[in-house]
Amino acid sequence: MCKKCNGGFLLVEALFALALLWTTAAVLLPLLTQMAQERNSLILEEKARRLLAIALYEEPLVGETTIADGRTVFQLQASDEGGRMRKVCVRWNDYAGREMERCGYGKR
Question: What angle do CA 67, 39, 23 make, to 5 degrees?
Fold first, then answer.
């Protein structure tokens, strides 16, 4: 064996480790960005559900109403479904640019 070897890293080994680290970061970064976008979209959906519950049960909503929350605009639309039922829908665009809609039914 080599009696004068220090046991240090070679340049090739260091470059290989750095390349492996860069590859891992390049694969994980888009996934982490997508996870953050989906988390924010779930927060928007929860806000929309709260608005829907308020429009159905607490404040009687008539016609169409627009509510701005930061950079997101929620559009609420109420309609009578005949009898004693009414329908309220809320629409918004999430962080991925998709148009989302949730509807609920309640008694008048």
Answer: 140
Asked if residue 86 lies in contact with residue 108, where contact means CB atoms within 8 angstroms, the answer is yes
Per-residue pLDDT tens listing for the chain (108 residues): 566 666 666 888 889 999 999 999 999 999 999 999 999 999 999 999 999 999 888 877 778 999 998 889 999 999 887 778 889 999 999 888 899 999 999 887
Please, what are the domains in the chain? 11-107 (3.30.1300)
Q: Report strand pairing: 72-80 vs 64-69.
A: antiparallel
Token pair for 15? 């470059």
- Do 102 and 88 meet the contact criterion of CB atoms below 8 Å apart? no
> What is the pTM (predicted TM-score) of this model?
0.71
